[in-house]
Specification:
Blueprint: E1 3-7, H1 11-20, E2 24-27, H2 42-54, E3 58-63, H3 69-85, E4 89-92, H4 95-103, E5 110-112, H5 121-128, E6 132-136, H6 143-152, E7 157-163, E8 166-170, H7 174-181, E9 195-198, E10 201-211, E11 214-218, E12 221-224, H8 229-234, E13 239-242, H9 249-267, H10 273-286, E14 292-294
Parallel strand pairs: 1-2, 1-13, 2-3, 3-4, 4-5, 5-6, 6-7, 7-13, 12-14
Antiparallel strand pairs: 7-12, 8-11, 9-10, 10-11
Helix pairs in contact: 1-2, 1-9, 3-4, 9-10
Length: 306
Amino acid sequence: MIELVATAESTIQAKALLAAGVDTLYIGEERFGLRLPNAFTREEIAELTEWAHRHNKQIRVAVNAIMHNDMIKDVIPYLAFLEEIGVDSITVGDPGVIHLLRTKGISLPYQYDAQTLVTSSNQINFWAKRGAIGAVLARELTAVELKEIAAQVTVPVEVLVYGATCIHQSKRNLLKNYFGFVEQAYATEKERGLFISEPKNKDTHYSIYEDLHGTHIFATNDISLMDKLGELAEAGLTQWKLDGIFTKGDDFVSIAKLFVEAKEAITSEKYTEDLYEKLAMQLKTFHPAERGLDEGFYEKDPSEIQ
């Protein structure tokens, strides 16, 4: 069973994504979730959970932030709220949150999501034995590694098939510190569109912004594995993530529709080379013009990655 998981930036877009054929919405509050396109209020999360369930869809909530002492205390009532409204699952990267789920008797299915650390089947199976119903794979994995993991895990694993890749996070406010040092006043939020480049490679364009969780830096190019979906499905990698943090509004919904079409073609055994080439070309028309697009680490040799 192929599952399409997509972020959402508003309740309007969320409902449009579900109507387009997305199976699971990935949303959450800013304080407890990392790098979401937009933060949702608890009232909105409750509304979307009820709406999704009415349409036989699912809600997954991001609780994958690094929890400092003040946050680990405040996350308990949040987890209780998510249990009360019946969200289908959460993502968790901090073992402290997993400990709280157990000790407080909070019944919430969770996916293990420790970002770049999730790179082996042994680690995933370790957390599966401790209650995880799945895991979010690191985005720096190659096709060889992805297929090896898929053959050995005991729970489903999520693969990013479209969207941006975060390559660095610091709890420090690096941008505010820099602008303070040079005595300039600049907004540092995602909407500002700031980026940095390597001095020896002017073509690099690393998007950078700050929020409650510090500073986030993204790879120059976003990922699209549209023409690799058949391979992924054949390998048993059937939980596909669409991340719209930099792709806004109707364009992201249109891209989601292309992946829905691809999913339906694979399910009905009608996925052809001509079809994926057509879908890949259509995807480019909706992708932000200022952002590059490639296959990330997928085709790389694992031995070349440092």
